[in-house]
Amino acid sequence: MAVMDVRCPDCHGLNVVKYGVQPNGKQRYLCQDPNCARRIFILRPPTDTGMARLPTDMRRVIERALAGAEISRTAQELHLPTETVAEVFQLLARFTPPPGGVSRQRRTLRRRAAG
Ligand SMILES: [Zn+2]
Fold first, then answer.
1. pLDDT for residue 2
2. Residues 10 and 59 in one domain
């Protein structure tokens, strides 16, 4: 099996392999980047609740949607059909963000994007 599309939270590299499970059943990963200080990590929500299983394109769309990006612009930048991007945006709009969770992240991302 090929390495999954899991990114190290420290170096954001994809040089990551599964590394057993925690006693609570969570998947553990090992970063194999020699320059990375973290090495072993566990994916945190929302990544381990479905994001990790999505194709990279969809994850990029979701990340942009959460960051408040525009549909047409996102479609252009990711070279995806506008309808596809719009579907994901609309799907996300139906979810109620958990208190202090996604909404706080969204504000942070917006502020960062604004400069
Ligand atoms: Zn790493």
1. 43
2. no
